[in-house]
Design goal:
Elements (H helix, E strand, L loop, with lengths): L21 E8 L6 E8 L6 E5 L8 E6 L2 E6 H8 L11 E3 L1 H4 L6 H12 L1 H7 L2 E5 L5 H12 L13 H5 L9 H6 L4 E5 L2 E5 L8 H8 L7 H7 L4 H9 L13 H4 L19 H15 L7 H10 L4 H13 L8 H14 L21 H6 L13 H47 L1
Parallel strand pairs: 2-4, 3-6, 3-7, 7-8
Antiparallel strand pairs: 1-2, 4-5, 8-9
Helix pairs in contact: 15-17
Length: 440
């Protein structure tokens, strides 16, 4: 009689108590076979020391099975690669680690959605409070592994190791294109970059590579993460949010439009933060953000270009943008915008902008696709531009009028040509008439 081995039941998360802040933390069990883990819940005010993992989820398929509390759970291949090498990378059975793919219920139930909203709103604090953030970069390249070993053996890095064969491979890893990287790295107390079984720790302590120097040497996130963040960070919190919204930072990859905002919220003053709600449409999220920006603006003063920067990043259409402004004006949260100015802006985005990108039609996603190439920037009166340029509406408007002038010139030329043609035709008619009279 053949024995049939029973398959463990699928793992289901136990509901978190949202009325008292909680998170889940994972512990790995040392085994020679299948990856086994233990998942427990903790109140935020009674957390043990823990690490947080920063990594890329990768494609949805294929999934790999692990055991959590004795039950099966599917994880992505990249996370599975980390879990199978965890003990080789200094994680012990006593180590608690926070991993979003496991510690947050990712199912589609209503309770899971509420939990996900709650946990994402706490992610900044989770990474800031972790004793260490482990950055998992993946596996597969011996050049990258040797590059990390080189970095870990250097006490100081005064110049980028661009001559090292693993340098280009390292900075080209998919990890650096993630939007969430910015807060996960920027808020960390101690960072450990791991690739395969090689790693390097980064902080300001003696004997380790200083973070600012390391960031410069590897052009962290290709100057779109911490380097870019330093350029937009300002003690004046009322302007820093706008600066980051207008920077290339928000072009980093994320799975949802909402994350173009949520991925950076932990870095800014609480006045500007909106509730995390993945059930909202982008237009609803934009409305919530506009409410906060309007309330934080003294004497109802605001910059329309600032509002447009967020409309741009959330793929808000010109009509949705105008409707949001009208709502704020009606509620007396902002001063009234002139009809002429709104009309001017809509004309710029609906009439002229599509000439640069045919997808930018009225009521379709708009400004985000209008980064100008260098030659385009120079064409509209920005000869000093040496990199892609995102124009403000005044630039568009100037071009709009310039184009109208061109159209006027074209119209005059057409009229002149038409007049010449008429005179030629009239001359021919008169000549024919003269011949007719002479023949008679």
């Amino acid at each position: 009689m053949r024995l049939q081995l029973s398959t463990p039941a699928p793992f289901k998360h136990r509901r978190l108590e949202l009325y008292k802040p909680q998170i889940r933390l994972l512990q790995l069990e040392r085994t020679s076979g299948q990856v086994r883990c233990c998942l427990n819940q903790f109140d935020l005010d009674a957390l043990p020391p823990y690490r947080a993992l920063s990594y890329t989820w990768g494609p949805d398929r294929p999934k790999q099975s692990v055991l959590i509390n004795g039950k099966t759970f599917k994880v992505g291949k990249n996370l599975f690669n980390f879990l199978t090498r965890a003990f080789e990378n200094g994680i012990s059975e006593n180590t608690y680690i926070w991993i979003d793919q496991i510690c947050i219920d990712q199912s589609s139930t209503r309770d899971a959605t509420r939990e996900r909203n709650d946990q994402v709103s706490r992610m900044g604090k989770i990474y800031a409070d972790a004793e260490q953030v482990d950055v998992w970069l993946g596996v597969g390249s011996s050049d990258v592994e040797s590059y990390l070993k080189c970095m870990s053996s250097s006490r100081e890095l005064l110049l980028p190791n661009v001559w090292h064969p693993g340098y280009r491979a390292f900075e080209s890893l998919p990890y650096w294109s993630r939007a969430w990287v910015v807060q996960e790295i920027y808020l960390a107390k101690l960072i450990r970059f791991i690739y395969g079984t090689s790693s390097v720790c980064v902080d300001g302590n003696e004997g380790r590579v200083p973070f600012s120097r390391f960031a410069t040497s590897i052009q962290l996130v290709r100057e779109r993460a911490t380097g870019e963040l330093n350029s937009v960070w300002d003690r004046d919190q009322s302007t820093s949010l706008t600066r980051i919204a207008s920077s290339p930072l928000l072009n980093l990859k994320c799975s949802r439009v909402h994350d173009r905002l949520y991925a950076f919220q932990a870095l800014f003053d609480e006045r500007y933060r909106v509730d995390v709600n993945y059930g909202w449409t982008p237009a609803q999220l934009f409305d919530a953000l506009m409410d906060n920006l309007a309330l934080a603006s003294p004497d109802q003063k605001y910059n329309l270009n600032e509002f447009e920067a967020f409309a741009n990043r959330l793929d808000i259409t010109p009509t949705e943008f105008s409707r949001a402004l009208r709502r704020l004006e009606k509620q007396k949260k902002i001063k009234k915008t002139s009809e002429r100015e709104l009309d001017m802006r809509e004309k710029c985005y609906s009439r002229w902008a599509p000439k640069f990108n045919p997808e930018c039609r009225r009521d379709r996603t708009w400004m985000r696709k209008l980064w100008l190439r260098v030659q385009d920037a120079r064409q509209i009166g920005r000869p000093e531009m040496s990199k892609p340029y995102f124009p403000d509406v005044d630039t568009w408007y100037a071009k709009h009028h310039w184009e109208d002038d061109d159209q006027s010139k074209e119209g005059l030329l057409s009229l002149l040509l038409c007049s010449v043609a008429c005179f030629i035709t009239l001359g021919r008619l008169l000549k024919a008439l003269g011949k007719l009279l002479i023949s008679k």
